[in-house]
Amino acid sequence: MPDQYRVAIVGSGPAGLSAAARAAALGMSHILLEKTDHLSDTIYKYQKGKHVMATPSNLVLRSDIDFDAGKREFILDTWDTQIADNKVNVRLNSEVTAISGETGSFQIELKDGETIQAEAVVMAIGTQGNPNKLRCPGADLPLIQYQLDDPGEYFDEHITVVGSGDAGIENALGLAADPAQRNVVTILNRRADFARAKAANVALLEEAEKDGRISVRRETSPAEVRENELVLETRDGQETIKCDRIIARTGSQPPRGFVEGCGIEFTGEDRGAFPKLSPSFETTQSGIHVIGALAGYPLIKHCMNQGYDVIEFLNGNQELKPADEPILADKFAALPGNRSVDEWLEIFRNNITILRELSPLQMRELMLDSDVAAFSAGEIIFVRNDPGSSMFAIAEGSVLVEVNPDDPSVTVPIEQGSIFGEVGLISGRRRGSTIRAAEPVVTLELTRNAALKLLATVPSANRAVNQITIERQLLQMFGAGLTSQDVAELVQSAETVEVRAGQNVIEEGGDDKDIYVIQQGSMIVEKSLGGKPIFLSYLPAGSYFGEMAVIDHSKRTATVKAAIKSEVVKFPGEAFTRLLDRNPKLRERAKADMASRRKVNSFVEERKESFSSAVDMYSETAKFLIDNGIGEATDVLLIDETLCVGCDNCEKACADSHEGLSRLDREAGRTYAHIHVPTSCRHCEHPHCMADCPPNAIKRGPDGEVFIDDTCIGCGNCQRNCPYGVIRMDPKPPKKPSLFSWLLFGAGPGPGEASYSWRKTTAEKRGLEQAKLAIKCDMCAGIEGGPACVRACPTGAAIRVAPEKFLTFTKLAEDVD
Amino acid sequence: MASTPRDSSKVDFAFAEKRRDTDHESFLSHARMRWLKVSSAICLIVIVSYFLVDVEPRHNGGSWYGYTLGTIGAGLIVWLSLLGIRKRNITDGRWSLKAWTSAHVYLGLALIVVGTMHTGFQLGWNVHTLAWALMMLVIVSGIYGISVYAALPRSLSTNRREMTRGQMIEALAAIDRQLEAAAQPLGRSESDAVIAALDQDVFKAGLLARLTGSYPRCATARALRAFPEGSLNKAEQKVASLLSRRKSQLSQIRRQMRYKALLQVWLYIHIPATIALIAALLAHVISVFYYW
Ligand SMILES: Cc1cc2nc3c(=O)[nH]c(=O)nc-3n(C[C@H](O)[C@H](O)[C@H](O)COP(=O)(O)OP(=O)(O)OC[C@H]3O[C@@H](n4cnc5c(N)ncnc54)[C@H](O)[C@@H]3O)c2cc1C
Ligand code: HEM
């Protein structure tokens, strides 16, 4: 072992492996340090037999080891052999605990006490982090494990799951699923409720508890682990239970703390932030490089390419063009002027205000997730009411906003360097106005994910976008007469406030005088009548509230609270009063709004007196719907169980119009007053499923639907992130024989989703690929006639609704019996 | 306390709304009873014309008037039968099965008038009357069908208590597992009763039991009788309470099966009788032309 390596590579995921293989190929002295006893732990932990995808398909792989789409086992085997063949110097069971020193001499401390010396460090530790360990005596006994690969492999055991999140609950349910395994399953929760888990999981757990399949111990934590025994700390003192195995799922510690401990700065505070990097992947701690998922590139191919690149840079190669060069060249080919990739990157960065602080590496990454386009003068860029959650920036030229829908000649300009379309991004709602090019224009369209990442990592961009958003939202909301000068005072004094679901923003009877605009999420308005809170109305993003008290100096007449986690912008009442004083027309409008709203309120109040139970029922139903996610939905399937005969034709139709798998579970889900919310996509304004999709495969389509495109890699993140359990993972089934050959000759499984066994055996017989992919409702996009579930319901029980239309008194009063 | 976004789209929203089909009304009142109106009009015209048109010597299927009604009736029967295909053939397009069912029900009822007036009330023991009788059988079963469609969904929904079929079965299996364990310390005869209850296949129920929901040979109910209140030790008490939980879980499942059976049983007459009707109709038409 040399005293000092040229480079130490920490982490043997695809990024680290590829870097080490490159170093070996160049004959650079190196060491690859891996925490676990095998290579590439993240991929090692994929589900058995998982089909690993090699997206993006247009990106060429640049690495000394091979990678192509295929089974997990095959890929791991290939890497093991190639790493051995390439004589890569690997040290397993070597968790790095600290890195100190500077370029030329780093000391890398390992958990086993050894220290490694290296001139440079490449960190490729991914984003999985370390599972939190139990904190009690006996926490290092071998009966504790932090992961459960296959719940089906344990029999006749007393198993205790520690942890009250989704992972713990899902593990416990899995272990108790098959009675034939005869496991005695216990789950411990430190708290009295399971607030951190999805409602659907909690319901299943409670169900299992009621049936005696799982013993749920609340307000209980492990006090001591012994061989085959676990001592519990309960509310009523200590208790010892039999225990052969402990599955600890108390979350994991993201690697950020460790990385910062090495002196590396991140781009920001929040969870989505990444280490600050130079074009050659160097961090703010010179000599330490970060690549792979930790650097913000969550796909295997990206990781491997970076591994190659970082070693080339370290080796002094300055000519190397990043592997994404051809993809970017392709993107820019559509633009006029015949400029090179680097020239275009500079134009975008210099001309667009919010991009000025980006590093060239960040620019490239942003570009990969974005689209560029050129428009000639007068060409339409997008049309009012188009759904769209992307944001545009103007790199060259300027555009015109048609502010009056009835008269396209009334326009407001937006100049070069500025942005537009941000409302769709922030509120998740449709485009507010049509935008067309004023002169030849080059635009950059940032996808939702790219834009959110940008805002999360570049504070100045975030501030700029926020200001513009508030100003434009005010102008749009209050009508065409106002100008930016009119609202400047309001914009200056605006304060963005985050509100938790259920939190009150204003309270009935209060005498505060601020007014609010909902930027994200939605609110419900309630009034206390006869001692009970009665639901008055639902306010989607883009509405304002609280102006009543400002206009007529009254106390708050109702409570407004968040239906879901929301963001509101707060303006001081006096500023609003001054605005009204200056603009009599606006005052009139505000008064008209107020009057119509009062009418609704007094209508409900009147009803409450004469038809008290009907109003209570309406109010309860509204609350039930909001509890079931309607508050963040844009389009949701409801089933009127007074009409549903249980024929399941909705599910069959869904399967038959989507390659043979149903995206809807009619029976599952909650019911109130015979209104049933089945397990089916709500097409949320800010879809949870989109949050963490490595290939960015989840998008919002032209009809407002949230859909998954064919770059899905089947990682299952979306399934885990969806709070409503509407995403399933399944391979695409084989094609069925036609309806008529079934009707006449009984060929095939018939209408609807074929049984699992038919799909499996037929696919095997036909030799079809069985990669599990995420599938969900796409609102039957592209199918003429609209959603098949509704069209195929024989009795009219299945309806699709938008919350702002359905959550009104008249609608609910006539629809709920 | 607020106003909703002013710019909320008129045109496109209307389009999205249409795609969604929010009109929340049952198949019976679909499109403000359009098909009831159409069907009533047909019946009225047929009845009035029946008395106005003078056919010698009396009304029968062979007159020009009879032929007209016969053709309309046969056409209707063919179209009504196509519902079975429409229901399963999920093609693109602006069709709605609700609209089809609505039209099906009301036009199907109109057939009583159209078909019967076609016969001129000349019924006898022949293939012609067989076709009529089968038609009436289909219609009567259909009337039963809509009456259960109207009455039972509510009970089905209430009985379900938000549980799926799978969850009900799973809940039963969980009780069974507990019962099995709890029955270990019991004496011979008591544990035999429990074993008998566990061994009985819940889903092997005859048609009658399914439709009435009464299960006189229920081994769980019998086992429960082996544990009379009052004289039980601790282990027996536990088993007894598990058995009564099993019984109430069973009743939920059985009620579910009963409602489902009542909602479906008529289709086992409606559909085969439709097929028989089409065969008889064919025979009827061929024989009429053959003996022309
Ligand atoms: C379920 C799932 C399915 C996926 N499917 C696909 C797919 O089909 N296609 C695709 O392209 N991407 C997929 N991804 C994403 C892909 O797996 C990751 O982006 C990729 O593995 C990241 O590679 P990496 O080298 O940056 O880090 P990782 O692969 O996470 O590797 C990090 C390594 O570092 C080690 N390590 C961590 N800390 C230390 C330390 N302190 N000292 C020493 N070693 C340490 C770890 O043990 C691990 O082996 C999937 C992800 C998941 C979770
Ligand atoms: C001669 C007349 C009729 C014929 C040939 C006929 C035929 C059919 C057929 C083939 C089906 C499809 C069943 C399936 O595939 O599931 C059906 C369904 C049905 N019919 Fe009829 N029918 C007739 C009259 C009626 C009448 C008079 C009524 C009601 C009063 C009626 C009510 C229904 C109903 C409610 C359905 C079920 C719809 C569904 O659940 O999808 N039918 N009929």
UniProtKB/TrEMBL annotation, chain A:
<dbReference type="InterPro" id="IPR050294">
    <property type="entry name" value="RnfB_subfamily"/>
</dbReference>
<dbReference type="InterPro" id="IPR036188">
    <property type="entry name" value="FAD/NAD-bd_sf"/>
</dbReference>
<keyword id="KW-0408">Iron</keyword>
<keyword id="KW-0813">Transport</keyword>
<protein>
    <submittedName>
        <fullName>Cyclic nucleotide-binding domain-containing protein</fullName>
    </submittedName>
</protein>
<keyword id="KW-0249">Electron transport</keyword>
<dbReference type="Pfam" id="PF00027">
    <property type="entry name" value="cNMP_binding"/>
</dbReference>
<dbReference type="InterPro" id="IPR018490">
    <property type="entry name" value="cNMP-bd_dom_sf"/>
</dbReference>
<dbReference type="InterPro" id="IPR014710">
    <property type="entry name" value="RmlC-like_jellyroll"/>
</dbReference>
<feature type="domain" description="4Fe-4S ferredoxin-type">
    <location>
        <begin position="704"/>
        <end position="732"/>
    </location>
</feature>
<keyword id="KW-0411">Iron-sulfur</keyword>
<feature type="domain" description="4Fe-4S ferredoxin-type">
    <location>
        <begin position="671"/>
        <end position="703"/>
    </location>
</feature>
<dbReference type="InterPro" id="IPR017900">
    <property type="entry name" value="4Fe4S_Fe_S_CS"/>
</dbReference>
<dbReference type="InterPro" id="IPR017896">
    <property type="entry name" value="4Fe4S_Fe-S-bd"/>
</dbReference>
<dbReference type="Pfam" id="PF13738">
    <property type="entry name" value="Pyr_redox_3"/>
</dbReference>
<feature type="domain" description="Cyclic nucleotide-binding">
    <location>
        <begin position="478"/>
        <end position="597"/>
    </location>
</feature>
<feature type="domain" description="Cyclic nucleotide-binding">
    <location>
        <begin position="354"/>
        <end position="472"/>
    </location>
</feature>
<dbReference type="InterPro" id="IPR018488">
    <property type="entry name" value="cNMP-bd_CS"/>
</dbReference>
<keyword id="KW-0479">Metal-binding</keyword>
<dbReference type="GO" id="GO:0046872">
    <property type="term" value="F:metal ion binding"/>
</dbReference>
<feature type="domain" description="4Fe-4S ferredoxin-type">
    <location>
        <begin position="635"/>
        <end position="667"/>
    </location>
</feature>
<dbReference type="Pfam" id="PF12838">
    <property type="entry name" value="Fer4_7"/>
</dbReference>
TrEMBL record, chain B:
<feature type="transmembrane region" description="Helical">
    <location>
        <begin position="265"/>
        <end position="291"/>
    </location>
</feature>
<keyword id="KW-0472">Membrane</keyword>
<feature type="transmembrane region" description="Helical">
    <location>
        <begin position="35"/>
        <end position="52"/>
    </location>
</feature>
<feature type="transmembrane region" description="Helical">
    <location>
        <begin position="64"/>
        <end position="85"/>
    </location>
</feature>
<keyword id="KW-0812">Transmembrane</keyword>
<keyword id="KW-1133">Transmembrane helix</keyword>
<feature type="transmembrane region" description="Helical">
    <location>
        <begin position="131"/>
        <end position="152"/>
    </location>
</feature>
<feature type="transmembrane region" description="Helical">
    <location>
        <begin position="105"/>
        <end position="125"/>
    </location>
</feature>
<protein>
    <recommendedName>
        <fullName>Ferric reductase like transmembrane component</fullName>
    </recommendedName>
</protein>
